[in-house]
Amino acid sequence: MEPAALKAGSMQEDGFRVQPRRVADLGRVPSLQRSSSSLCRSRRSQYAFSSCEKQENLSSWIPENIKKKECMYFVESSKLSDAGKVVCECGYTREQHLEEAIRPQAFQGNEWDPKKHVQEMPTDAFGDIVFTGLSQKVGKYVRLSQDTPSSVTYQLMTQHWGLDVPNLLISVTGGAKDFNMKPRLKSVFRRGLVKVAQTTGAWIITGGSHTGVMKQVGEAVRDFSLSSSCSEGEVVTIGIATWGTVHNREGLVHPMGGFPAEYIMDEEGQGHLTCLDSNHSHFILVDDGTHGRYGVEIPLRSKLEKFISEQTKERGGVAIKIPIVCVVLEGGPGTLHEMFETFTEGTIVEWTKKIQDIVRRRQLLTIFREGKDGQQDVDVAILQALLKASRSHDHFGHENWDHQLKLAVAWNRVDIARSEIFTDERQWKPSELHPMMTAALISNKPEFVKLFLENGLRLKEFVTWDTLLYLYKNLDPSCLFHCKLQKVLAEEPERVACAPALPAVQMHHVAQVLRELLGDSTQLLYPRPRSSDRPRLLLPVPHIKLNVQGVSLRSLYKRSSGQVAFTMDPVRDLLIWAIVQNRRELAEIIWAQSQDCIAAALACSKILKELSKEEEDTDSSEEMLALADQYELRAIGVFTECYRKDEERAQKLLTRVSEAWGKTTCLQLALEAKDMKFVSHGGIQAFLTKVWWGQLSVDNGLWRVILCMLAFPLLTTGLISFRDRRLQAVRGLARVRAFFNAPVVIFHLNILSYFSFLCLFAYVLMVDFQPSPSWCERLIYLWLFSLVCEELRQLLYDPDECGLVKMALLYFSDFWNKLDIAAILLFIAGLTCRLIPGLLYPGRIVLSLDFIMFCLRLMHIFTISKTLGPKIIIVKRMMKDVFFFLFLLAVWVVSFGVAKQAILIHNESRVDWIFRGVVYQSYLTIFGQMPAYIDGVNFSLDQCSPNGTDPYKPKCPESDATRHRPIFPEWLTVILLCLYLLFTNILLLNLLIAMFNYTFQQVQEHTDQIWKFQRHDLIEEYQGRPPAPPPFILLSHLHLFIKRVILKIPAKRHKQLKNKLEKNEEAALLSWEIYLKENYLQNQQYQQKQRTEQKIQDISNRVDTMVDLLEMDRLKGSGSMEQRLASLERQVAQTTRALHWVVKTLRDSGFGSDEGAPSLASQPASEGQDPELDGRQKAEDLGDAHHVNARHLLYPNSPIVRFPVPNEKVPWETEFLIYNPPFYSAERKDKDLVDPVGNALDPLSRITYNAVDGPTDRRSFHGSYAVQDGFPLNPMGRTGLRGRGALCCFGPNHTLQPVVTRWRRNQDGAICRKSIKKVLEVLVVKHVLAEHWALPGGSREPGEMLPRKLKQVLQREFWPSFENLLLQGTEVYKGYVDDPRNTDNAWIETVAISVHFPDQSDELKRLNSHLHTCDPGMSVRWQVVDKRISLYANHKAILQKVATLFGAYY
After folding, report:
1. Are 92 and 224 in contact (CB under 8 A)?
2. How far apart are CA 1244 and CA 1282, in angstroms?
3. What's the whole-number mean pLDDT along residues 634-656?
4. Sign (positive/negative) of CA torsion 277, 282, 284, 285?
C-alpha cells in the first residue's frame, strides 16, 4: 500500500491574523491584499470588455514582462539526438537555433556555459490552450524564463488570468512515471484531494504532465467537473512543467498569443518527452534554453510556492497568510535503491542527515495510510496536517488555538473545527470568538456561526454599535440593500468642512432604508444621533476608526469590552443584516435566537417582499418571495403553539407594542406585509371577532342586536349578553353605553343610516327636486355635511403622531376613501350647479351620477359579510380583467367602425353621427343590433338624409341618385361584418369568459384568506368610529372638537388593537413566547425526521457508514495478518541462520567467536501494531539520545554550514573517515573574557582543561573530557563544526538558569487547574530579535551570582534578595545543554534552580514591583506553563522537570 506523506510547510506560521481595513503598502505585486470578493468584482468588470480587448491587453503585457530563454551560441555536443542529428550542448539541433547562434564559428570550440550562451528575450508562447480531440475546455498557458520573479508570475495568475486568491496552496508531488495504485486508495485520494480544494478554495500545483501523480490529479479534477454543477465552481489546477520536455510544444508558439492554441497529445510518439495533461486548467512552462532536461521547473516552483504562502488574503476583517501543504504520493525501497546507486558517500551522508531532520520534525510530517488509525478521508488528513504544523510555530495558548480557528474558518471546514479545535483540551471564552464570528458572518458561513453559538458566544455581547456598523460597511456589493444604502448616502447633503470626519455609512442611514421597507407604521430603528449623543456612541478610547490602518477587529473587541451596546435588541440587528442580503441559512440560525420571534418573522417577511419588488434578477426575486413565505409560516407556527397553550396571552402578543421593531405590533406588521395566511389564522380571526363585538358576547344573535337597536329599552332585559360579568349584572346606563359602543352595533346603525340617506337622496332626485330646495333636500345637505366631517376626522385622526402628511398618504392609499372624496366633490359640484337657476337641470344630472357613486360605496360596507364579502372580492378582481378586455375590444370596434363608416358614408362632418357610426353602432352590433343598409336590403331614402342636413337622421350611404339604389360593395361590407362578429362575439367574448373563469378559480382558492385579511380594515374603521350614525354623528364630532382643540386632550389608540404592556408583564410574555418557539422548532425537526425522503436519506447514510466500517475492519484484519506473517518469516530466517552458525561452529571443533553470532529474534508484533512504525519510532528515540540542536546545518547568526553528521556517526568512538568539519570562532566585543580566535595552537596552549583556569571553570559536570590536538572534545559527540563558535571559551561554558514560578490564579485568587492538576506560571524574557521566549538565565560575569539576562529585567536593589532566593531554591538539573551554538570543542553546561512562590507573599509582590527592563528591546512576562509554550527546546526540558517536581500540569 502506497503511503501519502503530507508535509505542511512552515511558511504559514504567521498564518491567519486580523488585518486592518486599509493597507498602505501592497508590496511588489499590486492588489495582493484584495479580498476574493473584490477580485470577483474586478473580474466581473473585466467581462464588460470584449474578448478582443482582453487579448490585446494580454498580448501587450506578457511580452513586456515575461521572457523566454534562447541559446545564442551553437556549441556542438558529443551526443546525438534521438534522430541521429548533431545537437548543441543545450539539446537543440542547428536548425532549431536562431541565425545569430550559428554564425560565429569562433565559439564552437569553447565550453558551453548557460550563463553566457543563453539569453532572455520576449516570450512567444502564451494565451489559451485547447486540447485537440478532447473536451473543448479552454485553459491558460505561458512560457517563461526560469529567472522570472515570482511577483510577476503571481500578478499574471491573479490579475490577467483572473484567478481568485486561494485560501490554501496544495503542492502535489511524487512519482513522475506511471505507477499502479490500489483502486480504493486511488478513489480515496481523488475524492479527498478535490474535496479539500473545492471546499477551501485552494490551488493545486503539480508537474502538469500526463504521467504519474500528475495524471491522477488531472483525472480527479475531470471526474469532479463531470459530476458537479456549474455553481460549485472550478477547481484551479496549475501545472508547472519544463518547456524543454514538453512534447509537441511547437503548436504552442504564437508570438502574438494563441487564442486559442491547439495542443495535440501524442503519448505513443513522445519518446523521452512528456505530454501536458488535458485536465489541468493552467500551465506555467519554465524555460532555461535547453531541450530534454528535467527538473528545470523545480527552483521556480519552490520560489513561487513560497511567495504565494507569504501573501495575505483578507476577508471579513480577518486576514490569512496563505498556508501551503505538500502532498507526496508514491515512493518506496526502489526509489531509495536508485539513490544509493547514484549518490556518492558524501551525498548519502548529507541526505541521511536531511532525512533525519525531516523525520525529527514530526509536527510537519503526516503519513496517510488508508485504513489505518481510522484514516479514510484524504481531505481531512491534509487539513489536520496543516493544523498539526501550526501548533509547532510561534503560537502558544490562546494565540495557537486562535490561529487554528482562523485557518478552519478560511477553509470553511466546520467538521475540522469541531473535531480538532473545539475539544475538551481548550475552553473558549465568548469574547475570544468575536473576531471569527464577524468573519463568518461577512463571508456567509452559517455552520461556523452555529458552532460559535453552541460554544457559548452571546449575541448580546457580540453585537455592539461598532460591530454593527462594521458589518453594514461590509455588505455584499451585489445585494439590493447595498444599492439602496448608497442611494441614501448620495442624497444626503454634504457635511461642512469643519465637521468631524465620520465613516460614510451610519446607522441612521440604515434606518432610513429599513423604514422604507418596513413601512410608515414603524418608527426609525436607529435614530439619528444628536451632537450631544455622539460621544456615547463611540468607543471609550478616543480617535478610533474602523477604517484607520492598524486598528484591527481584535483590538476593537478588546477596547470596546466595557461599552454598553447602543441597540436594544442585538439579535434583531443581526437578523436584519442577514435578511437584507437574502442569506437564508444565516438568518434562520439568528432567528432561532430571537426573543420577539413572531414580530421578527413578520418583519423579515415584509422586508423580503419589498426587496423582491425592486430586485431585477428574477431568480433572486423568487428566492426572496419563497423565503418571505417561510418566515410567514414560522410566525404562524409559533403563534399556533401560543394559541393552543393560552388564547388570551397569544392575543396579547398580537397587540403588544414592540419597542424593538419601531413601536409597532405583530398584527400591524402582518398587515403591512400582506401576510394573508397569518391574518386568516383562526386565532387572529377570533381576536378580530372579539374586537368586532366589543363588550358584547360573541354568542349573541344578529337579530337580537338589530332588535335592541330599534328598541333599546330591551337592553334592560336579558336579551343581550355581555362578556363582562359586571355589565351582565348591571341594568343601567353602562349597558346602553357598552352596547352602542360595540363596533358591530355602530356598523349596523351606519348601514341603516346610509340606506336612509340613499332612499332620501333617490326620493329627492326623482320626486322632490324643486327650484328652491325643499326640507328633504336640506336634510340631505346636513347628512352630507356629517359625512364630510367624518371623513375629516378619519384624515386627521393620528394616535401614533405620525404627522399630517403621512396620515394623508395613508388615508388616500385606500380605494374607498378615494371614492368617498370623489362622491363628496361631485355632490358639491352638482349642488353648486343646482343653486344657480340657469344650471338647475345640469345640476340634477351631476347629482344623479353622484347617486351612482354613493351606491357603489355599499360594496365596501358589505365586505364584512361572510357570504357577500368573498363575492365582492371576486368582482373587484374581474373588473381588472374587464379593463384589459376593453383594450382588445376597442381595437376591433374602432377598426371595423372606421372601415364601415368610410365605405358607407361619404364625408360625414357631424361629429356626433361619426361617433355613432364608428363606435356606438359597432358596439351594439356585438349584442345583435345590426347596422342599417350594411347589406343594401333595407335601403330607404326616407330613413336618412342625403346631404346630412337633418340633425335627427343619419347621412345616406353611397347610392345612385337616379335609381335610388346603393352603389357601395355590399359583398365587402358583409364579409367585414362576418369577420367582425367572428372575432368579437366568438373569440373575444369567450376570451373574456375564460379570463373570468381563471380569475374566479384563482381567487376562489384564496378568497377566504383575502376576505379575512380585508375584514380587519373595516373592523378597525368602525372600532374607532363615533357611535352615533349620520347625521347625529355631528354631536360626536362637536364633542371631539372640544376635547382635541379646546381642551388639548391627545388622541389615544384603542388598547384592543395596540397595547403597551408593563416591563414585567412584557418580559414574562416574551419568555413564554421563547419557550413555545423552542417547542415549535423541536416539532419542526421531528417532522423533518419523519419525512419519507429524510428517512431514506438517513438509512442510506447508515448503510454507507456500515459499509465503510466493514471495509475498514477487513483492511485492518488483513493488515494485521500480513504483519504477523512477516514477523514470523523474519523469525524463521533468523532461526535458520542461528542453526547454520551452530552447525558451522561444531564442524570447526569450537564454539566460534561472538562476532559471528546472530542476534536474537525480536518479539512478535502485537495484533494491530505496525512494526515498521514501531521500528522507526525506536530509531528516532535512539537518535534523539544524542544532541540534535547542536547539529543543525546552519549555525546561528552566521553563514557557516556544519558538516552533516547522521545519528549513528555522533559518538567519537564511531569511525567517520570523511568527517571534515569547518572551523569557526566568532569575534566578540568582550575580548578579555573570551578565548582567542583562530585555530593556532600557540595561544591555546596556555589553557588548562578539566580544571579551574583562572576565573574560568573548565570542569565538566560529566567528568573528564578528552583533549585532542589541543582542543577539548564535546562529551556528547560530533556536531559538524570545530572551534569555539559563538561561545566564550573552549570546553564547557557554564550557565545558570533560574526557573521562577508561581501558581496561576483566577480573579478570585483561586489556583487554576487543568486536568485536575494545578497550573504554573513561569517568568520568561525575550529579546526583540529572538525567535522564542527564554528563561531569564545564561552566562555570569566572573564573581557574580546572577546571570546577565536576569539583571537586565530586574532592578538592582532587588539583586541581593534574589540571590538569597537562589540559595534557597531547588536544583532540578545539572549537566549538558543541547544548544545550537555548541561545537566539537565548545559546549554549554547549565545548572537549573527552581525558585517557586507557593502563595501570594510579599516577596512575590516585591519581585513583580522590581521587574523592569532597562533595555527597550527586552520583554518580560509571566507565561502559563504548557507543552506548547513558545520556548527554546532545552528550556522546555528544564521546565518539564520543574512541573514534575511540583506535580503541576504540563
Report:
1. no
2. 14
3. 93
4. positive
With contact defined as beta carbons under 8 Å apart, do 556 and 546 qualify?
yes
* pLDDT on residue 375: 54
CB 435, CB 409: distance < 8 Å: no
Mean pLDDT of the chain: 80
CB-CB contact of 47 with 572 (8 Å): no
Instruction: Report CA-CA distances (Å) from 578 to 472, 474, 663.
Output: 10, 12, 22
Query: How many whole angstroms separate alpha carbon 1154 and alpha carbon 1159?
Result: 10
Q: CA-to-CA distance for 120 and 76, rounded, in angstroms?
A: 21
What value, to the nearest 5°, has the Cα angle with vertex 1222 and ends 1220 and 1223? 125
Mean pLDDT lowest among 86-90, 299-303, 323-327, 1171-1175? 1171-1175
CA distance 442 to 1345: 57
Q: How far is CA 166 from each of CA 163, 191, 897, 941, rounded to the nearest angstrom?
A: 8, 20, 72, 94
C-alpha cell of residue 418? 469541531
Q: 1149-1176: b or e for each residue (b if 16 or more CB lie within 10 Å)?
A: eeeeeeeeeeeeeeeebeeeebbeeeee
Name 1394's bridge partners. Answer: 1299, 1370
Residue 638's contacts (CB-CB under 8 Å, 6 or more residues apart) are 597, 598, 601, 1073, 1076, 1077, 1080
Contact by Cβ (8 Å): 383, 192:
no
Q: Are 632 and 675 in contact (CB under 8 A)?
A: yes
CB contact at 8 A, 55 and 171: no
Q: Which three cell numbers stand for residue 908?
A: 360625414
* pTM of the predicted structure, to 2 decimals: 0.68
Query: Which of 938, 867, 10 lies closest to 391 in space, CA to CA?
Result: 10
In the chain, what is the straight-line distance between the N-terminal and C-terminal CA atoms, in Å? 38
For residue 1197, give every residue at least 6 positions away whose Cβ sits within 8 Å of its Cβ, in sequence order, or none: 1286
Using the Cα atoms of residue 1265, residue 1268, residue 1272 and residue 1275 in order, give the sign of their dihedral: negative
Neighbouring C-alpha atoms within 13 Å toward the C-beta of 487:
8
Q: Which residues contact 1029 (CB under 8 A, 6 or more apart)?
A: 746, 749, 750, 752, 753
Tens of pLDDT, residues 733-749:
888 888 888 999 999 89
Which residues does 527 contact at the CB level (< 8 Å), separation at least 6? 508, 511
Residue 316 reports pLDDT greater than 90:
no
- Tell me the three cell numbers of residue 349: 551522508
Contact present, 309 and 11 (Cβ < 8 Å): yes
Query: In 3-state terms, what secondary structure has residue 1423?
Result: strand
d(CA 1372, CA 1448) in angstroms, rounded, equals 15
Residue that is written with C-alpha cell 517568568 in the block: 1323
**Nearest to residue 1057, comparing CAs of 541, 669, 646, 691?**
691
The three three-digit cell numbers of residue 1288, written as one number = 566564550
Half-sphere exposure at residue 488, Cβ-oriented, CA atoms within 13 angstroms: 19
* Buried-exposed string 1229-1241: b where 16+ CB fall within 10 A, e elsewhere: eeeeebbbeebee
Nearest to 832 by CA among 821, 818, 846: 846
Angstrom distances, CA of residue 598 to CA of 644, 664, 884: 15, 12, 40
Kindly report which listed range (138-147, 1025-1034, 1185-1194) carries the lowest average pLDDT score. 1185-1194
Three cell numbers written together for 209: 504532465
270 phi, psi to nearest 5 deg: -80, -20
How far apart CA 1120 and CA 1116 sit, in angstroms, is 6
Q: How far apart are CA 338 and CA 342, in angstroms?
A: 6
Q: Is pLDDT above 90 for 125? A: yes
Q: Cβ of 812: how many Cβ atoms within 10 Å? A: 12
Q: Is residue 523 within 8 Å of 514, Cβ to Cβ?
A: no
